[in-house]
Amino acid sequence: MAQAPHNFDVLISGGGLVGLTLALALDQGGLKVAVIDRLPAADLLEETFDGRATAMGFATYRMMQSLGVASHIGEVQPIEQILVSDGRISSPSRKGGPSSLTLHFDHRETGAGDEPLGWMIENRRIRLALDKEAATRSGITRFAPDEIDDLRIDTGQVTARLKSGKILTAPVIVGAEGRGSYVRKKAGIRTYGWAYDQTGIVTTVAMENSHQGVAHEYFLPTGPFAILPLMHHRANIVWSEKTSRAKALLAMSRPDLEQELARRFGDFLGAVKLDAPVWSYPLSMELAATWAKPRVALAGDAAHGIHPIAGQGLNLGLKDVAALAEVLVEARGLGQDLGDLAVLERYAQWRRTDTMTLAISCDAFVRLFSNDIAPVRALRTLGLGIVDAIGPARRFFASHAGGAVGDLPRLLRGERLGANA
Ligand SMILES: Cc1cc2nc3c(=O)[nH]c(=O)nc-3n(C[C@H](O)[C@H](O)[C@H](O)COP(=O)(O)OP(=O)(O)OC[C@H]3O[C@@H](n4cnc5c(N)ncnc54)[C@H](O)[C@@H]3O)c2cc1C
């Protein structure tokens, strides 16, 4: 016998960092939400799930506060300064570490008062906090482990049949399943992009000396190398290498890998020891041709996967959440159909310029900095020097890093949304 459908205001396929944050925001606005994830919630909360930590900009962190998530996260490491340098690996005459030519961003230049540039938070802690908060919300129903087996997009509603046999309906569905988005494919939305022939090696290290809240990014000839401060004299490392070289590094013993790390760090942070397993991610750019179709919206990596060079991928996804939730809650208040293309296009237009600017800039930076060609090196050294010397240019980049650029949705201003505020 066919099961009776469960009716919702919004279906979210993918309950990762973006999908679950969106569910919380929509619930705060009084909407009834279903979140479907193919993995059991317990797997996503495992310490070994992924080694990533996020440099969350001050604006996106404000949203976590407004949604009641920040209080569950616990200790977070403020980022006081970012130092970008055209670094070199050590040689007999030089000891690694940041080069003398650095571009320097300071939180006092963003105009955001006492807020730091951002906060370093281990992704596992964010997932745990989202999970804890979602469990308190009666408007959120989670289906996991489960996934959509068949999706029908009709004139008046979407109908999702899950692998478990359950049937869910709503006026709109959001694809938030990351880069391989099922909803995106089902809606016939194409993607554009390319692979970088780089692999991101991710781990956490413990250091002898204090990092003093400074995030370092060295542009090395084979790819960017980021040292991102964590609590307790630790740092998350995002080390982009040519894929062939990364394979060799990943095959090394831990002591040999520590030596390779030390060559890149230099000695200004004292001895460096691995403090976690080592993960790796193939790096690519993947942009969806559109983020809105009738009854379908995309958010997070399902809409735009970018290189981690600027640590902005999740921040972009969280900004999507703030804009999409505001548009849908407003539409409900006005009695509009949530799946109407005119409603969903308002969201897509709101996010397009910021996302495209960032995606194109990240791509340009990867190409400009991942090489050792002398004239290009001279040009970028000049470029870094010029930006560093001009206060407004520095402030522009610092505000971008904090995520506070353009017409900010209410959640990114630290306000609450709608009925359950
Ligand atoms: C090395 C590295 C470092 C990074 N560092 C930063 C940083 O410092 N700052 C930052 O802002 N960003 C960073 N990013 C980017 C960030 O990790 C991603 O942008 C972010 O994880 C995207 O979140 P998401 O929820 O959109 O997708 P995902 O994290 O991919 O989550 C997708 C969810 O959907 C589920 N799913 C998948 N398919 C289906 C399906 N068919 N049905 C149901 N569920 C499904 C998955 O189980 C998962 O839970 C980094 C990325 C990399 C690779």
Indicate the topology.
Layout: E1 6-7, E2 10-13, H1 17-28, E3 33-36, H2 41-45, E4 53-57, H3 58-66, H4 70-73, E5 77-79, E6 81-85, E7 102-106, E8 118-122, H5 123-134, E9 140-143, E10 148-153, E11 158-162, E12 167-170, E13 172-175, H6 182-186, E14 191-207, E15 214-220, E16 223-230, E17 234-242, H7 243-250, H8 254-265, E18 272-274, E19 279-288, E20 292-293, E21 296-298, E22 304-305, H9 313-333, H10 341-369, H11 374-389, H12 391-402
Parallel strand pairs: 1-12, 2-3, 2-13, 3-9, 6-15, 13-21
Antiparallel strand pairs: 4-8, 5-8, 6-7, 10-11, 11-12, 14-17, 14-18, 14-19, 15-16, 16-17, 19-22, 20-21
Helix pairs in contact: 1-5, 1-9, 9-10
Bound molecules: flavin-adenine dinucleotide (FAD).
Structure description:
The relative contact order is 0.19. It is built from 12 helices and 22 strands. It is globular and about 65 Å long. Strands 6, 7, 14, 15, 16, 17, 18, 19 and 22 form a 9-stranded mixed β-sheet that branches. Strands 9-3-2-13-21-20 form a 6-stranded mixed β-sheet. It has a 4-stranded mixed β-sheet with strand order 1-12-11-10. A hairpin with a 3-residue loop joins strand 16 and strand 17 (234-242). It starts with 5 loop residues before the first strand and ends in a 19-residue tail after the last helix. The chain has 2 domains: 6-72 and 121-192 and 284-370 and 404-413, FAD/NAD(P)-binding domain; 78-116 and 196-281, D-Amino Acid Oxidase, Chain A, domain 2 (2-Layer Sandwich), CATH 3.30.9. Helix 1 (17-28) runs parallel beside helix 9. By secondary structure, it is an alpha/beta fold. Residues 13-19, 36-39, 44, 52, 54-55, 147, 176-178, 180, 182, 200, 202, 238, 281, 300-301, 308, 311-315, 317 line the site of flavin-adenine dinucleotide (FAD).
